[in-house]
Automatic annotation (TrEMBL), chain B:
Keywords: Membrane, Transmembrane, Transmembrane helix
Signal peptide residues on this chain, from the entry's feature table: none
Pfam families for this protein: bPH_2
InterPro entries in UniProt: UCP026631 (IPR014529), YdbS-like_PH (IPR005182)
Protein name from the UniProt record: PH domain-containing protein
Length: 192, 558
């Protein structure tokens, strides 16, 4: 597979600076901060925020239904606690929404010839980089809502264990599939 | 019934053992030695005990209610259960057949669910020989054939004579070698004695291993042609027992007897004129007397714990040897049950040299070779196939052994890049401040200043621990390896080859970015290693270099 064709394939997910296995001097070593990062789909944020709203709404509905139903009598402490519970749910929902509003646009990924990178986090930024050579298998994860929105998460598993699964959330299905195909066709993975 | 006989006729091509034991059993199916009945019986008792551990409270309650532990019925039923186990052992023994022929090991086993295993020699990754204590007087051994690494896929030949086990191992490993290194094998004479053949291999790989450091050679070999790298004397193991808490090895096994032991203990103390109840219950003695008693008791308890720990260490590490055969490190040890853990050199991800505070005083190091953590479970730290431990070696031996595994590595070095002091600040603000303010404020509010004093004391202690952690933490690298130093009161030195890294993560909070600091994390198959609060440029350079190393060297991590 030549680089040119990949560049065409990845108009969305741009192929970054190239790492080769030629002997290069230290100054030529590809730099992580030079990555050409690509944002994930803006729909991911929409999904997350609406999810936050929906779950807060459902929880409030459940609490209210319990409070105002006429089948059995609630103990007094619960009745007193009701407005606080609703308030708590609202506050948490707002925090959740605000977090996603600001954090989701910061999730960015990049593909280089030899590795995948993901940047994320609002206060605590992390930039993780997964060499394709070390990939054991790839999965596309699509929940029902993500399917509706035409999104998918790409999970990349290495021998680093389950806690270190590399995941790019909320990218368009076509992009995810192309990324997956790129990883699978990569000579390091397909050679196994 | 015949176990494979010891054949003293001239060694055929397939039996290239110095003991001239015929490994091939021919077309005929063999039965195990009758000692296997003991193994099967004990195994089914063990399985039942493991399964029934949740039923213990129920059984105990029933026994208490009916109060008939001493009655003949109970004894009868215990006897009946034992007989059932024994007969299941006998049945298992009769249902078990194996043969070794034509470079294959075949095993028929199981009573209700029969299973048939057919293992070609070249698929066997490793052959372990274990000696349960009841086998040892009779010279039998349990042979465990490891396949591609998954723990469930072992095949066991339950009871064969020890010489046969050794011969089988030698042949399987020789076959494995031939298969793997056919091209490397140029002049090794297959018809020659296996000893010479294998030793030639060992020399080959030792040359490969200690290239660049030819002054160091291990000359001692054992009867299997393995190079002995390290032995631990009883003194070493006693030191290990003192410096490390190996109490649980014995305490775990002794759990059913706690109640009785405690009863005896207080009786014995009472005889000596010490009444525990009296001490605690009444205020008849002066505080300094009480303090003295408490101190003496504490010292006695510590002495007992240390003794138990030494016992535990001896139990697991007695007669410890670490040896190398070709590209494989093998550790054998054990007082009653001789156990064996082996590890391919290429699978070792990290060497860690751990020193607790007591180790530092005595200048001892526990050395661990760690491999893929996802194989097997972490049920038993000391016996797990993921870690190979060399207990309480001296600092020089630790250097030597780590250079044996990772040539030219230098774990004790002075150029560790230390982490920023902001690490302390971060933990004081993020971890300590809120509990301290809340605790101390609460104490002042309810006018119990002792609470405030206690909270302050604990906070200062924690601050000290954080400061020590900051002081220890550092990272260094040379052409071949990355070194991490960390710890609190003790020190751990880690060393790994950058090309084995699975994933690299650079983390930075908004505040760290302002101060140009970053945390770098390397994910290895044996677990993640991170170094926080490094200068940003340094962390980036390290991450970039490691990634470049992984992606340009393209070597396997296994």
């Amino acid at each position: 597979m030549t680089l040119g064709t990949e560049n065409e394939t990845f108009s969305n997910a741009q192929l970054n600076a190239i790492t080769t296995n030629e002997n290069t001097s230290a100054s030529d070593i590809p730099q992580l901060y030079q990555l050409n990062l690509e944002a994930i789909s803006p729909r991911y944020r929409v999904i997350n925020i609406s999810l936050a709203f929906c779950s807060a709404f459902v929880l409030i509905m459940v609490a209210s239904a319990l409070r105002y139903q006429s089948f059995f009598v609630l103990p007094d402490p619960l009745v007193i606690a009701y407005p606080f519970i609703v308030m708590g749910i609202c506050v948490l929902g707002c925090l959740w929404t605000t977090y996603h509003f600001f954090a989701d646009p910061l999730i960015k990924y990049a593909l280089r010839e030899q590795d995948l990178s993901l940047q994320s986090g609002l206060v605590f930024r992390s930039l993780s980089c997964q060499p394709i050579l070390r990939v054991q298998h790839v999965e596309l994860k699509r929940g029902p809502i993500a399917r509706l929105a035409g999104l998918a998460s790409l999970q990349v598993f290495s021998a680093g264990g389950a806690t270190h699964t590399f995941e790019i959330p909320g990218i368009e299905v076509e992009v995810a599939e192309r990324l997956r195909q790129f990883i699978l066709n990569h000579k390091d993975v397909s050679a196994k | 019934m015949a176990s494979p006989e010891v054949d003293t006729v001239k060694p055929s091509k397939s039996s290239e053992g110095a003991q001239a034991v015929k490994v091939d059993t021919g077309e005929e199916w063999r039965r195990l030695s009758p000692i296997a009945i003991a193994y099967f019986t004990l195994r089914s008792i063990k399985n039942m005990a493991q399964g029934a551990i949740y039923a213990v409270p129920a059984i105990a309650v029933t026994a208490n209610i009916t109060d008939n532990i001493q009655s003949p019925n109970t004894l009868l039923s215990i006897a009946a259960i034992l007989i059932i186990f024994f007969s299941s052992g006998v049945v298992s023994f009769f249902m078990y057949r194996f043969r070794v022929s034509n470079q294959h090991v075949e095993i028929h086993s199981g009573v209700f669910s029969r299973s048939y295993t057919n293992l070609p020699f070249w698929r066997i990754q490793n052959v372990k020989i274990e000696l349960p204590f009841y086998y040892r007087p009779f010279g039998f051994a349990l042979v465990i054939l490891d396949t591609a690494g998954s723990a469930g896929e072992e095949a066991k030949i339950v009871a064969v004579p020890l010489v046969y086990a050794h011969a089988l191992r030698k042949q399987v490993l020789a076959e494995h070698q031939e298969h793997g290194h056919q091209e490397r094998e140029t002049s090794a004479n297959v018809n020659d004695s296996g000893h010479v053949n294998i030793r030639a291999h060992a020399n080959n790989s030792s040359q490969a291993c200690v290239e660049g450091d030819p002054s160091k050679r291990y000359s001692e070999t054992n009867e299997d042609g393995e190079t002995i790298l390290n032995r631990r004397s009883i003194t070493d193991i006693v030191i290990h027992g003192i410096t490390n808490n190996r109490v649980w090895i014995l305490l775990g096994a002794a759990a059913p007897f706690y109640d009785n032991a405690f009863g005896y203990l207080s009786e014995w103390l009472a005889e000596k004129g010490l009444q525990l109840n009296q001490l605690v219950g009444e205020q008849t003695i002066a505080w300094w007397q009480f303090g003295l008693y408490a101190f003496v008791m504490l010292m006695m308890a510590m002495a007992v714990v240390a003794l138990i720990s030494i016992g535990g260490a001896l139990f697991t590490f007695y007669d410890y040897t670490l040896s190398r055969q070709d590209d494989r490190y093998i550790r054998r040890s054990g007082l009653l049950n001789k156990q064996e853990v082996s590890m391919r050199a290429s699978r070792i991800q990290v060497i860690s040299a751990k020193q607790d505070w007591l180790d530092r005083i005595l200048k001892r190091v526990n050395l661990y070779f760690e491999q893929n953590a996802s194989i097997g479970h972490s049920t038993n730290e000391l016996m797990s196939p993921n870690r190979l431990i060399v207990p309480s070696v001296t600092e020089d031996e630790a250097d030597e052994l780590s250079q044996e595994v990772m040539p030219e590595s230098k774990i004790r070095r002075s150029d560790y890049q230390s982490i920023s002091k902001r690490y302390i600040l971060h933990w004081v603000i993020a971890g300590l401040s809120i509990p301290f303010v809340v605790g101390a404020g609460f104490g002042i509010y309810i006018e119990h200043l002792d609470i405030t004093a206690g909270v302050t004391f604990v906070s200062v202690l924690l601050l000290g621990v954080i400061a020590l952690r900051w002081w220890r933490w550092g990272v260094a690298s040379d052409d071949k390896y990355i070194y991490v130093r960390r710890g609190r009161i003790g020190v751990d030195y880690l060393c790994f080859e950058p090309y084995k890294v699975q994933q690299v993560v650079v983390k930075q909070s908004v505040f760290m970015k302002r101060r140009k600091l970053a945390t770098v994390q390397f994910v290895l198959a044996s677990g993640a290693i991170s170094v926080p609060f490094l200068p940003e440029d340094y962390a980036n350079e390290l991450a970039n270099n490691v990634l470049f190393e992984v992606e340009s060297k393209r070597k396997s991590w296994m």
